[in-house]
Give the backbone structure.
Amino acid sequence: MTTIVLFGGRSDERHVSVASAQNVVRTLGNPLAWFWAPNGAIHDVALDDLLAHQRAFETDFLPTRPALWPTLEQALDTLPVDDPVFLLALHGGEGENGTVQLLLEERKIPFTGSGAVASAAAFDKEQAKAKAAGRVRVAESRVSRVVSELPGIVDDMLSRYERIVLKPVAGGSSRGLFFLGRDGDRLDVIEKVTALGVPYIIEQFLTGREITVGVIDRGDGNGPFALPCLEIEVDPGHAFDYEGKYLGKGTREICPANIDDSVAANAKQTALEAHLALGCEGYSRSDLVATDEGCYFLEVNTLPGLTTSSLVPQQLRAAGIEFRTFLEEQMELARRRAGA
């Protein structure tokens, strides 16, 4: 089996992808590393170059070797190795919305994470909530796909809720996240959202504890199970946005979460139900809010971060599961699914 770590991509989450690839490569030792450049080309990267890259969350990775293929499709059609398995260290965009997964499925090439259908459903927050709604609690939300709809939706939601959250329908790493209260500058927020030019989901803000729960399958025949809960504490005046998540500004992550056993059980069951409802495979991570009424499902990530500071690796450590063991088990699951 030849492991190929695929990272980069054209999404605005490629910085996180590079950091994930660094952690994966460092853990596995000597895999192949393919960088999917923003222009679509594929570079075979020297591991020393990847590991030497500094401030991965803030600066672009620039490969020193020239591209070997102009597109990912050509790279997959002319694979230079036998018995490959792709370990996907991609986040956002085509890397997580089912596009790459479909390319690999069509060629019967094993890869880690969920398949194309589940990836596409989970990446669309509206679709994900609709699929999970019959099994878990979900916050009320509306979607604005046309710019002219946004002001009316915001006004309607604020007429019924004191605070709302606005976030891209398709996207992650807390990019483009806005919080808006009744006394806030709604015109400013609407202007910023409109400038981004992408569909947005407008959701009621839930007061409670922010919990995230990873779900993994170890391939032992027992099916997926939930990892220990992780709680995110946010300082006043801050949000769990990109800077809070990856640069540690105004947030703290506590794992295992310091919550009652009943709340933890509810959170784990909610994450597991979401994983199953979406048809996720291998592993996922669900973001929740634990309120007085119970846990509400917000969204599920089919390729959550695998950096040294990411949430799933923290939960793996709390569960006593070595990161290398997790990666090896995920690759073996990928091979079984592909019949390799």
In short: The first strand starts at residue 2 and ends at 8.
